[in-house]
Amino acid sequence: METIKNIIATLLVGLAFLGAMLIGTQANAQSWEGTHIYTPVHTKHFSSNPLYDNSRLGSEGGSEGFLITRSSNGLHFTMGIMQNSYGDYSKYLMFGFNLSESDTSQLSIQLGVADNYGKAYLDEVNARLMNRYLPSTMIENSRIPIVTATYKVRLTNLIGLQFNLSPAFINSGLYIQV
């Protein structure tokens, strides 16, 4: 079973890198194609945990850092450094695809991995679930899988609001398309 978990984790990372190679290089401010820089502003979890970092304006972590997304042909490759729920900085690597898109909004799904989530393993319920389902290499390196639905709304051709919904939280912020 452990071997299967490690194979799946390796395949996910491989798919993320393959996605990065597939994504084009031409940016167009009138479309969703191109590079987006996201900066988080606020995170709220669906259930409370005393380990969450309660920072400015009541945000529970996830209010500092940046993510860069490269988008082309409905595919997205995202990487960056952002504060996690526990107040530590994590590196994120995600690959995603569009569910729907219009001139003013976009809905997509991302799958990926984040590191530096050691505090997540301090919570007994989290630890039990992660030890059961995650490969040992992820646990030993304090990594967790990331699954989010992302909704973007344009305010102008280059600036907009972004909302990231995961099974544990909702995170919001601003993006700039370059």
Structural class estimated from helices and strands = alpha+beta
The stretches of 5 or more residues where confidence is low (pLDDT under 50) are 21-29
Radius of gyration, Cα only, in angstroms?
16 Å
Helix content estimate: 10-25%
List the helices and strands in order: HEEEEEHHEEE
The largest sheet is:
8 strands, antiparallel, barrel
Q: What's the total count of β strands? A: 8
Mean pLDDT: 86
* Order of neighbouring strands in the sheet with most strands: 1-2-3-4-5-6-7-8
Classify the beta-strand content into a percent band.
35-45%
Q: Number of helical segments?
A: 3
Q: Using the alpha-carbon principal axes, give the shape.
A: globular
Distance separating the two termini: 44 Å
Describe the structure.
The model is unreliable at 21-29 (pLDDT under 50). β7 and β8 form a beta hairpin. An 8-stranded antiparallel β-barrel has the order 1-2-3-4-5-6-7-8. It has 3 helices and 8 strands. The chain has helices at residues 2-22, 124-133, 136-140; strands spanning 34-45, 65-72, 75-83, 89-101, 105-114, 144-154, 159-165, 169-177. The longest helix is centred in the first third of the chain and has 21 residues, at 2-22. The N and C termini lie far apart (44 Å). By secondary structure, it is α+β, with helices and mostly antiparallel strands.
